[in-house]
Amino acid sequence: MRPAYKLLVTDLDNTLYDWVSFFATAFGAMASSLAQTLDVDQEQILDEFQSVHQELQSLEQPFTLFRLPSVRARYPGATPAELKVALDGPLHAFNHERAQRLRLYDGVRDTLARLKTAGVRLVAHTDASSPNAVFRLRSLEVLDLFDRLYVAPSQPVDYPDPDRVRQLAPPAGLVVHLEPGESKPNPDVLRKICAREGFVPTDAVYLGDSIARDVAMARAAGVISAWARYGTLYDPKLWSILVRVTHWSDEDVRREAELRRQSQAVTPDFTLDGFPEILPIFALSSQPGA
Description:
- The chain contains 12 helices and 7 strands.
- The protein is an alpha/beta fold.
- The protein folds into 2 domains: 7-18 and 103-235 and 247-282, Rossmann fold; 23-100.
- Strands 4-3-2-1-5-6-7 form a 7-stranded parallel beta sheet, with helices on both faces.
């Protein structure tokens, strides 16, 4: 049986894997280790992280800790390569927790493979940067299943290790950087993605964990919306860690609250309690081999 739809556009964070849990835990471990390394109060470290995140307009810029005032004061004039050595403890704390906790939700890899085998075009769409998105998908061994990856506008990163740059390089033609302002929940972004991939909106399904940003965008774009309800089931205490160091301004917080208020009237076409539940939407059996 041919799939009912031809294109799946899927969010990444908290749709393919639990980003909140792994990133908050890893970040908390890094911040705690950094406070001990510098002998600085952890609340001061968190304040400095928030300030730098707001400057960069990103919560997830690699090696943000190199920019912190406390770090610059302790290691004046140090190069990124030198800081990588001096701050090996905090960096290791982050990497260790990430390695332990970054896992696909149950059934993601097999489900993506079945969709691809059935002829569905697989596209990822994220507000994350290319290095972060590519690293996670490659680490989770699903990068090769995607036909395209739409990411946030690129930001220069001063990597201390040239080999790391090569490791993060995506396959040619895979990544498309969106323009500034082309972010969720703008439905024009999703319409452009469909058009670039050679489909009309009614050919596509969009899957994401946010009603306000993913489902509302899909509905406005005329794309079938699937809500990854399973992606909202994380410890609220971990979310509070991210809010503590968020790059959002007060105006961003107000805007997000208004989006959430408006989204109360938005109903997804489908609600999923597990990633494999996407298969019946494409008229594919949820049973392997069927």
